[in-house]
Amino acid sequence: MTVRGSSAPEIATERPGLRVEAEDLEQIVRGGHRTLRGVSLAVRPGELVAIIGASGVGKTMLLDALAGIRPPASGRVRYDGVDQGRVRAPVAYVPQDDIIHTSLPLVRVLRYAARLRLPAGTGPAELDARVAEVLSVLGLTHRAGLRVGLLSGGERKRASIGVELLARPRVLFLDEPTSGLDPPTAIELLRLLRRLAADGVPVVLTTHSPTDVDHCDKVAVLARDGHLAFAGNPAAALAYFEVDTVADIYERVAEEPDPAQWSRRLAVVRQPDHDPAAPSDAAPPPDAVPLSRAALPDGVPLCPAAPPDTGVADERRVGGPDGRRAGGALRQDGSGAATDRQRRLGPIRQTALLTVRGLEILARNRLTLAILVGSPVAVVLMFLMLFKANTFSFARPSPSATVMVLFWIAFGVFFFGLIYGLLQICTEFAILRRETRAGLGVVPYAVSKVAVLLPLLAVADLVLLGVLRGLDRLPALAWSRFGELYLTVLLASAGALALGLLCSAAVSDPAQATLSLPMLCFPQVLFVGAILPVPVMAPVGRWLSWAMSNRWCFEALGHTLGVEHLWRDGGSPLGPPLLATYGHTFSRPVWQDWAVLGGFAVLFFAATCAVLAAKCGRPGSTRGRGA
Ligand SMILES: Nc1ncnc2c1ncn2[C@@H]1O[C@H](COP(=O)(O)OP(=O)(O)OP(=O)(O)O)[C@@H](O)[C@H]1O
């Protein structure tokens, strides 16, 4: 680590790592609170750097600013002298939680991750070789076939790092990688990071553990309110704070009532003729790096420079907050052309990949699959127990029962569509955010959700209508009429699925999604126009009923089943008065209802994509929480 005012940055062409420089970083969070104040530091290729400080001092803020996850309010971050936002080299960020799919075997997780992160032209053999290489350097080859959820905490942490290593990052940031690990496992992990740094890739991590610092080349100490108190090697830090252990540094820093004093002191000692850190930087004492590269068992480089023809090392984008590719690029060869091999997977192939992954996750989650498939079956059985046969008999119809049959079919398909979508995104938002940083588009992601779930709903809808018809709960119908009914419920399901996805994208966690369920369902019951016909609703209720997708499904079903004719001309004296109450509810041509139902589906789907794009682009939590 060097200090501010160092000589002009040079473009690193011979080492895989990038030089990271931060200059006068300030960060301001919601409410105007400043969390970083004038932080300047530099990290060289090959350095393993720990950011330490008391809880809440801004360690994650600094890490996020350095990584481009949460750009600073002011100040600059440069990689090899180029503004961070303009660099397209692969930069890895490992969030605090091991946010990867836990139901898949480790090798499958890495394979999917490699498909997303490596250039589109990477062949299967090369892909498998890279996955095997990463497994090997992580020491997880023997765990490759094990479900991620069954890995130990340390193994999961290594797996999470492995996801980022696939793309051969040129700088690696980790938020509290050792949190929750026992000391030997933490040391094992630091050994891995040390080796990665030794290969020339700068590694920056935040930590709460003073012992982690013993294994790092450099340490940055933050004081309260985001003041940088020190930046240099650990031995120099002990001398600077006049303490015996790293743990004592925390106490020493906290003793100062005005944390700004620490920045001022550092500014003084950073003067060229008064800089205790500079000599240490140039030649770190041997005891500052106890886990030497030579002591490590495996000689395979963790992040070998990509072969020159692949362009892997240069073309991959830096994980900026907006999930889009940034403008300029750092290129080792200095050329501006991207080859086919260098391009990331296109939207269609991303969609296909995520659909396959979604199906595999579903197939491996037997209980989830059983609930998804079993619930509609259970509801069909309940309908059979609830509805009498021949309700729609022309000679002896039961008009009030026909309304309920139509309503419950409409509500049933709405409810299942909604439930299928409701927990899909909020349960894995942190994974999505991580993958969008690696180049995944939110539209392919959302489409893949529909591609996995809509066929399941389509089968459930077909079973529902087929069983009700087969057991005479619905009248005999020509195939074309049955097709009409099916299209109506399919469109209603698609709209409800999209509404569920929208809600899942908008909330912060699964608990909020679950709590939103009554608010999504109640209006679809009250304003559908079944329990209380639309013509007799209060004016506001009538207006609201237009916005209920359920209403259009209910009315389309009634139109296709000829409810008007049945009530007016059928053998029940209750029909005509009921028809008078419902008015023209069922007289609209069914294609108009389809257009509205399709419109709802498209609208909710587009809104889902917009919310995802906004949330994935918004600087925010990187810790595995929801947005
Ligand atoms: N989105 C936000 N809005 C408002 N304040 C925030 C936000 N994110 C973080 N903060 C505040 O910014 C400060 C620095 O947060 P940061 O997460 O960087 O601290 P930290 O040093 O990493 O803490 P810890 O070690 O406990 O993880 C804290 O006071 C925190 O409450």
TrEMBL record:
Superkingdom: Bacteria
Region feature Disordered, mapped onto this chain: 272-342
Topology of this chain in the membrane: Multi-pass membrane protein
Xref: InterPro entries: AAA+_ATPase, ABC2_TM, ABC_transporter-like_ATP-bd, ABC_transporter-like_CS, ABCG_transporters, P-loop_NTPase
Protein localization: Membrane
Bias (Basic and acidic residues) ranges: 313-325
PROSITE patterns, sorted: ABC_TRANSPORTER_1, ABC_TRANSPORTER_2
UniProt xrefs under Pfam families: ABC2_membrane, ABC_tran
Residues passing through the membrane, by range: 367-387, 407-431, 443-465, 485-507, 519-538, 594-614
Sections of the chain in a coiled coil: none
Keywords: ATP-binding, Membrane, Nucleotide-binding, Transmembrane, Transmembrane helix, Transport
Domain named ABC transporter: residues: 20-250
PANTHER family given in the database record: ABC TRANSPORTER G FAMILY MEMBER 28 (PTHR48041), PROTEIN SCARLET (PTHR48041:SF139)
Protein name per Swiss-Prot or TrEMBL: ABC transporter domain-containing protein
Protein species of origin: Rugosimonospora acidiphila
